[in-house]
UniProtKB/TrEMBL annotation:
<keyword id="KW-0255">Endonuclease</keyword>
<dbReference type="Pfam" id="PF03852">
    <property type="entry name" value="Vsr"/>
</dbReference>
<feature type="region of interest" description="Disordered">
    <location>
        <begin position="1"/>
        <end position="37"/>
    </location>
</feature>
<keyword id="KW-0227">DNA damage</keyword>
<dbReference type="InterPro" id="IPR011335">
    <property type="entry name" value="Restrct_endonuc-II-like"/>
</dbReference>
<comment type="similarity">
    <text>Belongs to the Vsr family.</text>
</comment>
<feature type="compositionally biased region" description="Basic and acidic residues">
    <location>
        <begin position="25"/>
        <end position="37"/>
    </location>
</feature>
<dbReference type="InterPro" id="IPR004603">
    <property type="entry name" value="DNA_mismatch_endonuc_vsr"/>
</dbReference>
<protein>
    <recommendedName>
        <fullName>Very short patch repair endonuclease</fullName>
    </recommendedName>
</protein>
<keyword id="KW-0540">Nuclease</keyword>
<keyword id="KW-0378">Hydrolase</keyword>
<keyword id="KW-0234">DNA repair</keyword>
């Protein structure tokens, strides 16, 4: 790093955002793209991260923090001091450090820009801070609705257990989980990270263990679990779910009238 600033505070251009600069575009440029601003959460969800720079006059240093939102709560992780000549350079340095520490998704994977997924829509689930209502979820729900099925969204099948299913058929006791290809180790699309490979492999393995534990808990409570990969065709997945729901708990089909 080039900044010393032993006798004065860091210059504004090293840490303060300029007038007219879009915060989102600035963060995208510093991270190397919008889809590289990914912060993995503990249960396999993802959040959209951003780097904040703060000056502490007493030390005449710039400190960098990675920030994200988790279910409405703002979280942050201290990344250390930065000392480059411009704000953009400091943001880039901070993003690099976040990846080195495993706080953000590493950017040197072959699939870092989403090539692990087969479609643009699948890759789009990596973009943003959504723990629910992702495109794969909406499309599956739309197909289920078209088949005449009615359901609950984002509900705990077992109220006393903190495991939330994406789609729940209460009467049939069928719980649907839509799993992201990377975070749940899809056999078709998951590719191990080269940087901090052991860290990320352990994280994916922990997610898979949690999935297996969830399936066990649901089964012991009398629920059937269906897991749908985000790359699956939503119409095919919906038909598979509909067949199970109607066998387990036959219900009168709701007539869908086309207009």
């Amino acid at each position: 790093m080039t900044g010393n600033w032993n006798n004065s505070n860091p210059p504004p251009e090293a840490w303060r955002r300029g007038r007219g600069v879009s915060p989102a575009r600035e963060q995208d440029e510093a991270a190397g793209g919008h889809d590289r601003r990914v912060v993995p959460l503990d249960d396999g969800r993802i959040a959209l991260g951003s780097v904040a720079l703060r000056v502490f006059p007493k030390t005449r240093r710039i400190r960098a923090y990675l920030r994200w939102s988790d279910r409405g709560d703002t979280k942050e992780k201290y990344l250390g001091e930065v000392g480059e000549a411009t704000r953009l350079e400091n943001l880039r340095f901070a993003w690099t450090r976040a990846r080195e520490r495993g706080v953000a998704l590493p950017d040197d994977r072959e699939d870092a820009r989403g090539s692990w997924a087969s479609t643009v829509d699948t890759r789009a689930t990596m973009r943003g801070n959504r723990s629910k209502d992702t495109k794969p979820e909406k499309r599956l729900r739309s197909q289920l609705h078209a088949l005449g099925l009615r359901y609950n969204v984002g509900k705990r099948p077992v109220p006393t257990v903190r495991r939330t299913a994406d789609v729940v058929f209460t009467k049939a006791r069928v719980a649907i989980f839509i799993d992201g290809c990377y975070w749940h180790g899809c056999p078709d699309h998951y590719r191990p990270a080269r940087q901090n490979g052991e860290f990320w492999s352990q994280k994916i393995h922990a997610n898979q263990q949690r999935d297996a534990d969830t399936d066990r808990i649901m089964a012991e409570a009398g629920w059937r679990v269906v897991r749908v990969w985000e790359h699956e065709d939503p119409s095919e997945a919906a038909q598979r779910i509909a067949d199970l729901v109607r066998v387990v708990s036959p219900e009168p089909r709701v007539n869908v009238v086309s207009t």
